[in-house]
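Entry 14. Structure prediction run on the chain below.
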Amino acid sequence: MIVMSIVAALVVLALVTQAGVVAVQRAFPPQGRMIDVDGASLHVVDIGPRDSGLPIVMLHGASSNLEAMRQPLGDLLAKNHRVILFDRPGHGWSTRARRQDSTPRIQARMIDQALGKLGIDRAVFVVHSWSGALGARIALDHPGRVAGLVMLAPVTHPWRGGVGRYNEIIATPLIGPLLAYTITLPLGYFLTEPGARDVFLPQMMPDGFVQDSATPLLLRPREFIANAYDLVTLKEAVAAQAARYGEIKAPVTIIAGEPDKTVSTSIHARPFAAMVPNAKLIALPDLGHMVQNAVPDLVKTEIETMIGKIVPAQAAAD
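Output returned:
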């Protein structure tokens, strides 16, 4: 009877999850177009004037999607610049054929291929958190694509500890998918908002952020599993690429907060800035992890300052 009750409960939870997936996807439909690359289909939102010069590519971190970069920063930039926002492979409305395609190296290749299909030769990349490792990898493997790199609270180096026991379990074969397709979505409805509030500290989370950023899309099983794989494979990936950071030739601006409890500035941003020849570090004493929400005007100014230096330099070189 106990076994039967457990099976019945899992069936009910699986049905609730599937209904929840339908509801979430109706609430947060795709806003852009799909671009097929090797191993993935990427959702891209392309906003702002097309004739505005050097475009800006924005890449979100873990447990999120492109809306986390679009509001408010992307929309602010799009008043004067072409802004291209990606759902990373497996996140938001982007898919990926293999859950194991979780590393910055593989995702860098996918982003590079998509930009080629969009006709974007060079761009300034704006990357947050997990995508700090991705932006660095694009600059290493596809340097011709990167005119400049602006990193917000970036992950760049290996750290002590893990990424949360639940992520490790979700990335485990069999048991992970079982949990993802039964309890993750119902449980997530209660945990998403307090979890998001913690990431913002010491800043306050803006009212309506969870809905405005389409964060509930993360609770869908296939995305939750992809996110877990991204997290559990990240430490090994950054350990493998960190020794190469001195090869990055593009100008880099890093903005991070000293009280950031999600990604330590002393472990990531400071060592990265010390290794990269053309790096500028802005470390703020009262800034948390969500840099793009806390100081969007500062980030915009730094991006535009970088573009203002790149364009004349490129013209002189030509």
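The chain has 13 helices and nine strands.
Filed with the rest of this week's runs.
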